[in-house]
Every structure is written in structure tokens, then in C-alpha cells.
Amino acid sequence: xxxxxxxxxxxxxxxxxxxxxxxxxxxxxxxxxxxxxxxxxxxxxxxxxxxxxxxxxxxxxxxxxxxxxxxxxxxxxxxxxxxxxxxxxxxxxxxxxxxxxxxxxxxxxxxxxxxxxxxxxxxxxxxxx
Length: 129
Fold this sequence. Notes:
One of its GO terms (cellular component) is mitochondrion. GO terms for molecular function: ribosome binding; translation initiation factor activity. The protein has 129 residues and is an alpha/beta fold. The chain folds into two domains: 19-82, Ubiquitin-like (UB roll) (Roll); 90-126, Translation Initiation Factor IF3 (2-Layer Sandwich), CATH 3.30.110. 34% of the residues lie in helices and 28% in strands. The chain has helices spanning 35-45, 66-82, 101-116; strands spanning 19-23, 29-34, 48-53, 60-64, 90-96, 120-126. β1 (19-23) and β2 form a beta hairpin. The radius of gyration is 25 Å and the shape is rod-shaped.
């Protein structure tokens, strides 16, 4: 059974660090503590430890409920969708509303080629005078 990639670095008991900076579910800092003490807190309150920032010393973990984790994953997915993907080319095409039929067909073929190549296409139509 393949493991599903989590949106967070680590959730739950697999914590590779000895000393952690822990934040409670309300966003208040509980300070630096040993891994065992953080796990004890997690078990007492029925919460999960989620890695927020790994690149700081000590790494920052937050106690979260399952609902909070789900909401955070949804937020991150929305942000990822909204941000432009690297390597994706955006093509822009602009023409007048008084375009000739032959020119329109040519530009339509060009747009179809760009879409086949997985480019994002933006079409602007200007009103003719």
C-alpha cells in the first residue's frame, strides 16, 4: 500500500528532533521543550503535533486537531493552485472585433496549437471603432 504524501513535514509521533518549540492549538507559544514532553502534551489533549517550520533552531511544531489539520491542508492546496506553476508558459493573443474571417481562423488554429502544448492562453478582444 503506497504511502500518501502529507501536506506537512511530519504529523504525529515521528519527530526526529530532541528539542522543539511548541505552539498550542490556539496559537500561543508554549516555549521550547523536549520531544517526550511534547508527545505527553499531545496525548493528554488528544491532539497531533504538526511541523510548521523546520529551518529554525529549534524546529517549530504546533498542536492541532484533525479538523485544524484538514483546514490547513485545504488552505495550502488553494495557495498552490493560485500560484503560477514553474515552467508553464502563458501566451497572450489580442485582436479586434472587426477581424476578418480568415485571420480569425488562423488565430484559432494558433490557440489550439498552444493549448496542445499545455500553454496557458489569454485572449483579448478589442472593440472595433
